[in-house]
């Protein structure tokens, strides 16, 4: 029986024959009278952008769990080859996770030579085959917040994608390689608001995956987790890979925690924590990844404390990682108490470019210098949304438990301050920002997302604190909904309609759809027509048509005016309810579409939550606002990372 060659020539591998690996052509092919295909790599991706030489060097500073055992230097440029010997040793004995190199040998030994990768803190200028990185865009090289890879000779350009990511299972012989390739081809794009050579997620993964066990295993686990939703029999493999990634992360994390000082920046570890923390819900939608994200923030906190010792470029990289955390906190604030992260508060030191002894409180601009793959064009708006959700959840919890630790007046004062900041947001400077480089996600999509977050923040504030918009001269409990909440929710739906489901902004849309759904509430008849069933009233008036013929003239005309007003009110009511019905239909339809292009687990939870909210609204006792959507989420435990 022929044995398939895992490291032989292309021809033998294609024919499932054991190759004798003779160079330059194998004798097996010669004896069969066929042309030997040579010993090329089994996997290639975006190689047209690579210009590599023989004497590459890597000066990327990152943390290694065991520096003495893991010292390597890239010799043939980044290729999907290996993460580390540590990763290989941790594989199960009965599973072949072989990496295939072009020489037929383990790519760990063929592509790496000894070097010391433990270099000073966060010196992230990288040279690999004369690769020079610049974290500033050509248009504004003076800004520490800008990042570009346009001049880099490294394959960071994303693959052209279909509307729905492909999910062909990788060949068993090249599972790690294929999963990493799949991450770059499909997963990176659905994990980012936009995808191009400006995408920080793609740049950092391209830089670190071949030298960091934490990054390599995390990328594999993410790909497998997404594929398992399409190929159910991959579920156990996905869980195993998630475990491998966790072990790699845990090993490096223990070394970091054992050091009082942080002489080197564990970039791979930090990125791996974000990868696993935000994707574990793809395997189990109800798991929020809090243990991983907690460690990510603690690590960021330590690095931020040393920010004044960083170079100009290093601060730019730290600034981007801080924004990544901002988005994670936004997602968590929607579904859980974020107080567990308070010991590692980096909000006050996030702007690493400010003076350490400012004379005035620094004001964060409404619009960022360049778009971030998670927070988009406005990190400030993301922070406001997080603060809003934290305040709203705290208020609902205090009402539920009867707590008086924080008076309602204090809650209301904080809500007013947030409302004013939302209303003052100005996204006009975005016009000066360069395009995303992603044909599916023009800059305007990110602006629309920022505006959607602004509307969402106001919707949550007005639902939780209706006194912000209620008119004191009216006693209507429905006032805040009729005047502000429902109209804002309809506006949010209209905005979402402008964002196609295949736009990179799709990663933000589940949370925005949920927010819109919370404001799509039917008003009680009593709030519009004082105390009686209007249709029955109208019919009664028709029955009395003959009796009014005996009225005097002014009273007679009064009946005419009232009948016309009743018809107008009924028309308005029907149109209003029709608008809410149509908006509800769109929300569910959009969530259904998102379930086909995003990991479906969290989307399924989102749909269940939306339906539960509407069911509670429609069944509530004729008291507008008696049911709050946060209480519905807590009651049914319908939570996930909705982004």
Question: How would you characterize the overall build of this protein?
Answer:
GO terms for molecular function: DNA-binding transcription factor activity, RNA polymerase II-specific; transcription cis-regulatory region binding; zinc ion binding. Keywords: Nucleus. The protein has 643 residues and is mainly alpha-helical. It has a domain at 41-363. Helix content is 49%, strand content 1%. It contains 21 helices and 2 strands. It has helices spanning 10-14, 27-32, 85-89, 107-111, 175-190, 200-208, 213-228, 235-257, 267-279, 290-305, 312-335, 379-401, 408-424, 443-464, 479-497, 509-518, 525-528, 534-543, 553-597, 600-619, 629-636, and strands at 73-74, 112-113. α11 packs parallel to α12 (379-401) and α15 (479-497) crosses α19 (553-597).
Order of helices and strands: HHEHHEHHHHHHHHHHHHHHHHH
Shape: elongated
Rounded average pLDDT: 74
- How many beta-strand segments? 2
Instruction: Count the DSSP helices.
Output: 21
Oligomeric grouping of the chains:
single chain
Q: What's the N-to-C terminus distance?
A: 50 Å
Percent range for β-strand residues: under 5%
GO cellular component, one term: nucleus
Keywords: Nucleus
Region (Disordered): 59-94
Protein name: Zn(2)-C6 fungal-type domain-containing protein
């Amino acid at each position: 029986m022929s044995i398939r060659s895992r490291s032989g020539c292309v021809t033998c591998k294609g024919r499932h024959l054991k190759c004798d690996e003779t160079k330059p052509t194998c004798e097996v092919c010669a004896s069969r009278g066929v042309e030997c295909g040579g010993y090329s790599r089994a996997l290639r991706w975006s190689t047209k952008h690579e210009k590599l030489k023989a004497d590459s060097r890597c000066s990327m500073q990152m943390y290694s769990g065991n520096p003495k055992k893991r010292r390597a230097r890239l010799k043939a440029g980044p290729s999907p080859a290996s993460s580390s010997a540590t990763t290989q040793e941790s594989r199960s004995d009965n599973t072949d996770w072989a990496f295939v190199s072009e020489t037929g040998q383990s790519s760990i030994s063929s592509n790496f030579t000894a070097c010391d990768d433990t270099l000073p803190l966060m010196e992230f200028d990288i040279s690999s085959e004369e690769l020079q990185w610049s974290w500033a865009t050509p248009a504004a090289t003076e800004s520490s917040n800008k990042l570009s890879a346009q001049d880099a000779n490294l394959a960071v350009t994303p693959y052209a994608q279909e509307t729905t990511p492909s999910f062909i299972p990788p060949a068993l012989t090249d599972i790690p390689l294929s999963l990493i390739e799949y991450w770059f081809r499909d997963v990176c794009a659905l994990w980012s608001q936009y995808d191009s050579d400006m995408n920080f997620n793609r740049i950092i993964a391209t830089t670190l995956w071949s030298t960091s066990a934490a990054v390599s295993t995390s990328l594999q686990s993410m790909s497998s987790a997404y594929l398992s939703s399409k190929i159910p029999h991959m579920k156990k493999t996905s869980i195993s890979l998630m475990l491998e990634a966790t072990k790699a992360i845990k090993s490096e994390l223990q070394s970091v925690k054992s050091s009082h000082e942080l002489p080197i920046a564990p970039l791979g570890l930090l990125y791996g924590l974000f990868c696993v923390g935000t994707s574990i819900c793809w395997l189990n939608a109800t798991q929020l990844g809090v243990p991983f994200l907690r460690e990510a923030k603690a690590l960021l906190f330590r690095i931020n404390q040393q920010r004044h010792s960083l170079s100009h470029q290093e601060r730019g990289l730290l600034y981007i990682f801080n924004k990544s955390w901002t988005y994670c906190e936004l997602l968590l604030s929607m579904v859980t108490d974020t107080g567990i992260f308070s010991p590692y508060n980096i909000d006050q030191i996030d702007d690493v470019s400010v003076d350490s002894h400012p004379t005035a409180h620094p004001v964060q601009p409404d619009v960022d210098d360049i778009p971030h793959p998670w927070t988009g064009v406005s990190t400030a708006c993301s922070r406001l949304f997080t603060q809003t959700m934290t305040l709203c959840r705290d208020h609902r919890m205090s009402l539920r438990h009867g707590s008086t630790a924080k008076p309602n007046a204090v809650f209301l004062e904080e809500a007013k301050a947030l409302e004013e900041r939302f209303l003052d947001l100005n996204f006009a400077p975005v016009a000066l920002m360069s395009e995303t480089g992603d044909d599916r996600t023009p800059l305007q999509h990110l602006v629309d997302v920022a505006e959607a977050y602004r509307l969402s923040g106001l919707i949550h504030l007005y639902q939780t604190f209706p006194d912000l918009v209620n008119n004191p001269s009216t006693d209507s409990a429905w006032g805040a909904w009729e005047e502000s909440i429902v109209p804002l929710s309809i506006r949010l739906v209209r905005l979402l309609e402008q964002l196609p489901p295949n736009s990179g902004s799709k990663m933000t849309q589940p949370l925005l759809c949920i927010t819109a759904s919370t404001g799509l509430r039917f008003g009680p008849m009593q709030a519009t027509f004082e105390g009686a069933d209007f249709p029955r009233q109208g019919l009664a008036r028709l029955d009395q048509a003959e009796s009014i013929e005996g009225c005097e003239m002014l009273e007679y005309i009064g009946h005419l005016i009232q009948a016309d007003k009743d018809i107008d009110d009924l028309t308005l009511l029907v149109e209003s309810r029709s608008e809410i019905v149509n908006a509800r239909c769109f929300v569910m339809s959009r969530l259904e579409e998102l379930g086909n292009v995003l990991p479906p687990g969290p989307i399924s939870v989102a749909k269940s939550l939306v339906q539960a909210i509407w069911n509670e609204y429609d069944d509530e006792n004729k008291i507008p606002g008696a049911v709050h959507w946060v209480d519905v989420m807590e009651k049914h435990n319908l939570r996930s990372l909705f982004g």
